Amino acid sequence: MNEQLQQLHDHLDLETIDENTFGTKHKNEGWRQIFGGQVLAQALLSASRTVPSERQPHSLHAYFLRPGDMKEKISFQVDRLRDGKSFNTRRVTAMQHGAAILNLATSFQVSEPGLSHQITMPDVPAPEDCLTRAELAEKYKDSISAEMLARASRPFAIDMRPVVPENFMQSEKREPNRMVWMRLDETLPKDYPWHIHMLAYASDMTLLETSLRPHGVSMFSPNLQIASLDHSMWFHRPMRMDEWLLYVQDSPSSAAARGFSRGNIFSRTGELLVSVAQEGLIRIREPKS
Questions:
Q1: Catalytic residue among 254, 261, 267, 278, which?
Q2: Residue 278 forms beta bridges with which residues?
Q3: Beta-ladder partners of 77
Q4: What gap in Å lies between CA 70 and CA 101, rounded to an integer?
Q5: Domain limits, the chain
Q6: What's the chain's Rg over C-alpha atoms?
Q7: pLDDT value of position 286
């Protein structure tokens, strides 16, 4: 692994406390509060460690209950709800300071054939024709702070390239949809076990922002309070995070200080691999006088 991917891998890795309890090893990641994708991926990883390796997740449903403390380790308690011939069901509670910060339910299935159909992937430019994070930051460097330029320009384990380049700091009304190419910036061994967990981590990166687009609000707006409330994923077909994936997102509605967004994740060859749905808090606070 390259340095950035090794850091992310180590960051998500867990220590085993007992057969049903796991804990974080390293400092938490986030901006203002723990990044939801971190807790989501680690909760899924905790559940995965209690089922046979040949059984893979087919869905997960999570509620973010409290903001996470950046300075506190997280423990993950796994409840083994059911072990069947085809499916295993788990519930995971992420805890800090004696209180739950995330509750996740997930189900695993043995691989089996079945009826198959899917929607069609949009026709978009290839990822090689889209700007990298660093190129995007350079393009708009005159309108962003030096700190944000440094954050956006630094190497990162996940290469994310928006299909349509935009100034992410600019508060401008846009259609409630977006598309992003993404992949791990490294070719991994065939038997690498964390592709789904890495995707769970990445799936929380840009989705909620889609619900802000029609309102001319940037996620960096000082009067915006934003946080994931729940997150669901359905894994339709096998996938690899070291191959290009197209994350197609839209937001059908926002209301009552909540934004709802959906995502479909396609392989480069057009297979629908994963579907995602999320609702988040998008509360506009009145400026302090």
A1: 278
A2: 231, 261
A3: 21, 93
A4: 12
A5: 1-111, 126-289
A6: 19
A7: 78
- In angstroms, what CA-CA distances link 69 with 66, 97, 204? 9, 9, 18
Query: Residue 285: pLDDT band by 50, 70, 90 thresholds?
Result: confident
Q: How far apart are CA 181 and CA 247, in angstroms?
A: 6
Identify the top-confidence range among 54-68, 154-168, 205-219: 54-68
pTM of the model: 0.93
**CATH number of the 126-289 domain:** 3.10.129.10
Q: Using CA atoms, how far apart are residues 244 and 280, in angstroms rounded to an integer?
A: 27
Same fold, 1-111 and 126-289: yes
Show the tokens assigned to 28.
Answer: 């938490």
204 flagged as catalytic? yes
Q: Which residues of 225-238 are buried (b: 16+ CB within 10 A; e: fewer)?
A: ebebbbbbbebbee
Closest CA to 228 of 252, 254, 258: 258
Using CA atoms, how far residue 182 sits from 67, 88, 221, in Å, is 27, 30, 25
DSSP 72: S
The answer to whether 278 touches 205, Cβ cutoff 8 Å, is no
The architecture (CATH level 2) of 1-111 comes to Roll (3.10)
Non-local (6+) Cβ contacts of 272 within 8 A are 118, 119, 121, 236, 237, 264, 265, 266
Specify the 3-state DSSP secondary structure of 248: strand
228 in catalytic set: yes
Q: Which of 48, 204, 254, 267 is catalytic?
A: 204
The catalytic position among 96, 228, 251, 261 is: 228
Task: Give the C-alpha separation, 163 to 124, whole Å.
Answer: 7
Q: Among candidates 25, 73, 22, which has minimal Cα distance to 49?
A: 22
Structure tokens at 133: 């994070």
What tokens were used for 17? 């406390």
Task: Tell me how far apart the alpha carbons of residues 50 and 80 are, in angstroms, rounded to a whole number.
Answer: 8
Q: How far apart are CA 228 and CA 215, in angstroms?
A: 18
Distance from C-alpha of 80 to C-alpha of 92, rounded to nearest angstrom: 9
